[in-house]
Amino acid sequence: MKRKIIILDTTLRDGEQALKYSLTAKKKLKIALSLENMGVDIIEVGFPISSPEDFKSSQIISNNITNSTICSLARCVDNDIEVAAESMLKAKNFRLHIFLATSDIHIKSKLKKRFQEIIDMSVFYVKKAKKYTNDVQFSCEDAGRTNINNLCKIVEKVIEAGANTINIPDTVGFTVPYEFGKIIKYLYNNVPNIDKANISVHCHNDLGMASGNSISAIKEGASQVEGTTNGLGERAGNTALEEIIMAIKLHGNLLNAYTDINIKNIYKNSKLVSKICHVPIPRNKAVIGSNAFSHSSGIHQDGMLKNRNNYEIFNPTIIGFKKTKLNLTSRSGRSAIKQKMLELGYKEKDYDLNKLYNKFINFADKKGKVFDYDLEYLAFKNEKEYKNFFLLKKYSVNYKLRDYTKLKIKLLCGDKIKNIKITTKKNIINVLCKLFSKTTMLKIVLLNYESFTTEKIENLSIRVNISVKYKNRTFYGTGISKNYLESYILSLIDVLNNIWNLNDIYMNLKKNIF
Ligand code: KIV
Ligand code: ZN
Predict the structure, then answer these.
(1) Nearest residue to 225 (alpha-carbon basis) of 217, 236, 234
(2) 287 within a domain of the structure (yes/no)
(3) How far does residue 316's CA lie from ligand 1's centre (Å)?
C-alpha cells in the first residue's frame, strides 16, 4: 500500500523570513486559507516570539483554519515555547515545532556548547512542549552537516522524550540527493525507536538540490516533506512544494507514495503567493513558470500537435494552469503556423501557407516574438504595408502642481491632429489609457504593463511593455525612450497601431470576427 506523504508548507515562516518586508496578519491569513483550500496538511504560520505581528498572525490563522494543522516555531527557550503555544490555543489542531542546531560547526561556533548539552536541552524542551500539545516536532538544525552518529543519538533521545515528528533539515543546502537519501536510510537502520516518530525533511536550495534531496529522502522512508510555495525562502530558497507534489503524483509507484493535495489549486495558490509577497514567478520555473508549458522549436511544436505527450509530462490544466502555448518564433515551423491560423478561423485554402511561412520567418527574425494578429496581417498583407496610423507629434508634462499631473499630447491620427489635454490627480497610467481609447474610438482596456531600464547608465533608456484587451483579444505594445511617461505613451500608440492594422485587414476581408 502506498504511504501518505505529509505536506508541511512553511511559506509563512521560512518563506517569509526571506522577504524584503514582513507580511501582515491579514496577508498571512489570505495565504493560509489558500493553502488550506489546496489540502496542505500542516501550515507553519510563523515564529510568534519574533514580533507582535507574527504572534497576531498565528492567533488569527489559528482562529480561522479548520482542516489543516497549525504549526509555530520556537527555539529551545522557555518563553518561545510559551508564546508559540499561547498563539495557537484556539486552533482545532496545533503543533509546536522546536529546533536546536546539531552540527559541530553550529554547536561550537554559534551556540558555544558541547554536544551533551545539546541533547539535554533538546530533551528538556521537547518535554516542556509536550505539556501544551501532544503534537511536537523537533528539528535538528543543520542535520545535513551533522556527524551521523550524533544525529542518530539525538534523534533517539528526542523521540524518547515524546517528539512525534523529527525533522532532518539540510539547513544550508549542502548535500546532494544520493548523500541526503543515505542519511535518512542510516537513521532508519540505526535509531532503535525510529518507528515511534514520523521522519520529516526540510531542504534548502543552495546547490539547486532541494527537490532532488527531498525526493531521495522519500524514497528512503521519510514521511513528511517541508517546503514553500514557489520555493520562497532563505538565500536560494526552500524546496518548492509544487515540484514535490507533482513529482509524487507522477512517480507515486516508484516512491510508493501519495499526497492528499488538491492539485487543481496549485497554480492559483502560486499566483496568490507571488502577488502577496511581491516575488514574481521566474518564467522558466518548473511546474508553474509561464514558460513551463510553452513550446518554441518547430520540431517540438510539430510533435506537440501530433501528440501532446511527446513534449509534456502532464497536462497543465490539471494544476489549474492555462492551456499549453505554442510560441510563434523564428524556430516555429509550418505546422504551428497552420494550427494558429486554424485557431484564428482560417482554413488552409484561405491563404498560401508557403508564402506566409516565408514572410513569417523574415518577420520573426527581425521582431523575435510574433503575435497572432501579426500572423493574420502577414497572411493577407506585406510587412511593408504596415502603417503607423497613430503617431506622437508632441507632448509636455508638468508635475509642479502639487499632487496634480498636467499633460498635453498632440496625437497624429492619419492626417488629423488630435489634442489631448488632461490635469489629473489619479493614476496617470489608467487615465491615459482611457483617454487614448476615447480619442481614437478603439475601446481598449489595460491588462498589464511592465518597465525595464537598459543597462548602460550613460545611455539610459526605458522600455515599457503593455498588453490591452480589445474586443476579447489581447494586443501588445512596446515603447522605448529616455523618459518613463513617454515610453508608456509610445507603447499605447504601438498597441493602437497594431489594432488599427488588423481592423484594416478585416475590412478588406469583409470579416467581422472582433
Ligand atoms: O532550515 C532550517 O534548519 C530551519 C529549521 C528552523 C527547521 O528552517
Ligand atoms: Zn529552513
Answers:
(1) 217
(2) no
(3) 32
